[in-house]
Design goal:
Distance between the termini: 10 Å
Structural class: alpha/beta
Oligomer: single chain
Order of helices and strands: EHEHHEHEH
Radius of gyration: 13 Å
Shape: globular
Largest sheet: 4 strands, parallel
Strand order of the largest sheet: 2-1-3-4
Helix content: 40-55%
């Protein structure tokens, strides 16, 4: 799927230990822009801030959506409000996660890995 001319939301899920998350999100936005899309919003899910989160950092919040259910709804709202035609995650996604997120958000969902293909 080409991104040229599309408005896009970018999303990242990071460990609280990742101090460069803002720079990584900037790099993703730059990669999306280089493909001819316009970034119309960003969403970040931080992980491991609480005691329970630290113990579960190596697992996604949800095997269905990678991010928490609340964050998935937030992304869908932001997509609807912005009119974005795609959502691009910095993180790798399974086919199942991609399908569920596309259904929730109402638009195609890609991973940064897809941008290199």
């Amino acid at each position: 799927m080409g991104l040229t001319g599309r408005d896009v939301l970018v999303v990242g899920c990071f460990s609280a230990r990742q101090k460069r998350y803002a720079a990584l999100m900037d790099e993703l936005a730059d990669a999306v822009t280089a493909l001819g899309a316009r970034v119309v919003g960003r969403s970040v899910q931080r992980r491991g801030v609480s005691d329970g989160g630290v113990k579960a950092m190596d697992r996604p919040y949800s095997s269905r959506t990678l991010v928490s259910a609340g964050k998935a709804r937030e992304i869908a709202r932001a997509r609807e409000e912005s009119g974005a035609g795609a959502v691009v995650f910095l993180n790798p996604l399974t086919d199942h996660q991609r399908d569920v997120l596309a259904e929730i958000s109402g638009c195609p969902v890609l991973s940064s890995i897809d941008l290199r293909a």
